[in-house]
Every structure is written in structure tokens, then in C-alpha cells.
Amino acid sequence: MHIIEDLAQIKKLNYSWSLALGNFDGVHLGHQVLLRRCVQESRLKAWTPAVLLWEPHPQSVLQKKPFKQLTTPRQKFDLIKAQGIEYLIRLPFEQKVASLTPQKFVEQYLKIFQVKKVFVGFNYTFGKDRQGTANLLKKWGEQTGFSVSIIEPIMVEGEIVSSSLIREKYKKGDLVTAAKLLGYYPYVQGRVIPGEKRGRQLGFPTANLMISPRQILPLEGVYAAFVEYEQCFWPAVVNIGKRPTFNKTSLTIEAHILDFQQDLYQKELKIFLIEYLRSECKFATVEGLSTQISEDLKKAKRLFSGVKM
Questions:
Q1: Domains of the chain listed by start with CATH number
Q2: For residue 56, pLDDT beyond 80
Q3: How many helices (H) and strands (E) does the chain have?
């Protein structure tokens, strides 16, 4: 998938485009349906399927503070690419963009493409104060010369799939449901950094992961997980928290990988979080913590047999 960060490049390519519009936070099941529809129709009609994406997330500009997302920009790129999109058009979102009326937005950012069709979700909004709607875009598209496909909501267990619903599941530690809404296991990705080696002292060595501060994390606690390293998946127990037994206050992500002996320092890992096991708590002794970790491992092992990666 190619990345374009300058509208002038669009004119040079002179393609017939199909565009998927949205923030695609999490690239969940609803997003995936929209992206696949864009790709499938484009292949039939010899269009070039693309995503028009704004960075940073518009909420960061509108709220004037960092907005954590379900996926990092890198993860979003990989997930969008997996759906068959050929171009990612990534443009800077600034206050001047936020202040555009819906009509000005269409004139400045859609007319520049030789766009044949635009794909949006049922709840898509655009323009100043989110005045533009999917139906309004469809009306203007007919006047401008492009058609608009509005993707109906995708339902899972009686609920509409949305990024906000997935965030709610994250806050509760309900990653089983979150995975159903996403269409994949939630994951964090980052480089292994040196830790305090307390896990090793307890008999449970851990890989300590440094991840992007831009990614939202689920409820603090202990999770059954799988760690992807060099295209292999290793079962693990992961702690996301502040290690209260050792009177720490900074958040860490520590993974104890079962039956794994390799040196992982400075290596890149993906940690797929499968299920919440328990909350993080303070133990009176390190022996008590060690005993609990043994119990966590037993519980996690019972879950691993039913998981396909």
C-alpha cells in the first residue's frame, strides 16, 4: 500500500479513484466491511481504492489535547492494507480544516480527485461542527459527479459495532467481546526494554514492552495473551499495571512468555490480549505474589487450548 501526503501527487497520478472516508479507529468489523466493499467494487470497475485519513485524529485538534486511539498509526496502516486498499492518503488535520463548511470540504478535498465513488459509514460526519452527514454527501455527490455508498451498521450480539463501544469494553477489561467487535484480538506492539528483573527473581522472567503513548490500553490487570515474535505465537501471561507490591507508580506492560528462553532485548513484539484474568493487587509478600502468578499461569493454560492464532 502506497502512502500519499500531498494532494499535488493525486493530480499527477491521474487515476479513477474510489475513496473510503472515516477515522477508522481500531479498523473494526464495520470498517472492514466498508473497506472490502470499496476494494471489491474498484476491482470490478478498474478504479483505484484509497483511504483518505486525517492525522492527527480530529479529536486531538478539536479537544486541544492528545486523543488516544485503539490502534497506533502503524497498526492502522497494517490493518487497512490487509483489506486490499492500494493507497493511503494521509493529510494533516488542522484548525483551518475543522472550520470548513461541509460544502467547502467537498470542493477542496473531493473534487480534486477524479473520484468515481465514495464509501462511508452510516454515521459519517464531516465539515464544521460535524454538520455534514452521509446522506448530505450522497446528495452533493450526485450533483458533483460521484456516487456515494453508505454502509449500514454491523451488529454483533445485538449491538452496533463502533469504536466507542470497543472503548467501553476496554475500560471493563472485556476483551473477549472487544475481539468479536474488532474481528481480531486486541494487541499492543513495541520494543522490549530493560526492566528491574524482579520477574526473574520471582522465577517468572518478563519482557517489558515500550509502546506508543498514543494507544489506549485496556483495564489494568493480568491477561492471558499470545506474543508474536518472528512469525511464531507464544502463550504468555501479561501484566498491565503499576506493580503495587513493589510500591511502583509508573505503568508497565510485562509479559511472561511460557517455555521461552531467547533474549528479547530491543526486539519488536506484538502482544495479543486474549482474556482478562484478574485485577492487579498488592501482596503482603513476594512469596504471595509468586504463588498468585503460578495460579494465573494455570488459569491461562486452560484458555490457550481454545484459541486459534
A1: 2-154 (3.40.50.620), 185-304 (2.40.30.30)
A2: yes
A3: 11, 16
